[in-house]
Amino acid sequence: MTKIKTTILLLVVFLLATTISNSQNQNNTNKELQAIISYHDSIFWKGFNSCNLNILKKYVSDDLEFYHDKNGLTKGAEAFLKISEKNLCSSKNNWKLRREAVQSSIKIYPINNYGGIISGNHLFYITENNKPECLDGVAKFTHIWQLKDGLWKMTRVLSYNHKAPPQNTDKKEISLTYELLDSLIGKYLASNKETITITRKKSMLQIKAGKMLATAYPQSESLFFSKERPLTFEFIKNSSGKVTKMVVREKGNIVEEAVKK
Question: May I ask which residue range the UniProt record assigns to the signal sequence (predicted)?
């Protein structure tokens, strides 16, 4: 092998080794960053769930911007802490909110010379009037963390795409004939004298009561359920097979018995 070829080969080997080393260092750095941000983010939300304002104050920057798709923009640490104290930590509340991240959805990305981003999905649970805790909503989140003067603080918080949690997930939808579905449609008189209107939309029923519009999926020939609310709708027939009323249940409890007109 000539001297020139040997020199070129050594240069290639050196560059390859340097690239691999830099890649490994970068991966290690990213893993460290992910662990750091994940740790501080989890501590912040532990403070949120326990209404520990000292923890929240420690972790939010003075120029915090909190974007919420339902409540709008909250600017500044002071405003955020006041809202948290009033809505989450007040002894006057008969309910408690708990936020939980969906661990499998979490992604963390570095921001050069700043900090990092953590994003994913989170769940909100509510405990009300000493009743068992229940899932109240789901949403997406994005938090921007900054490392400044040796301290990690959240500068931007986004909580968006809030939705009601899926309901009646234990129930299985079946197919019914249009003829059977059509026998259930019509107008029903509620106990408050309000008219409930039921129409068919393909293989489902749509139930309209005032401003409420619910889609009902068949579980049996007489029982339907909502996927958006903890509601079921049971159609009662008389001895001749004619529908006489609809019984509406919420979380298993009867909330309405509407008579068919």
Answer: 1-25
Closest CA to 245 of 175, 191, 166, 179: 191
Residue range(s) of every CATH 2.40.128 domain in the chain = 178-260
Distance CA 136, CA 117 (A): 26
Distance CA 251, CA 84 (A): 30
pLDDT digits (tens, 9 = 90+) for 46-83: 999 999 999 999 999 999 999 999 999 999 999 999 99
pTM over 0.85: no
At 79-100, the pLDDT tens digits run 999 999 888 877 677 888 999 9
Which residue in this structure is represented by tokens 């109240």? 136
Measured between alpha carbons, how far is 21 from 168 in angstroms, rounded to an integer? Answer: 52
Which regions of the chain carry the CATH code 3.10.450.50?
Answer: 3-163
Tell me, which fold does domain 178-260 have in CATH? Lipocalin (2.40.128)
175 φ/ψ angles, rounded to the nearest 5 degrees: -105, 135
Q: Which residues, 6 or more positions from 229, have their beta carbon under 8 angstroms from its beta carbon? A: 164, 167, 214, 250
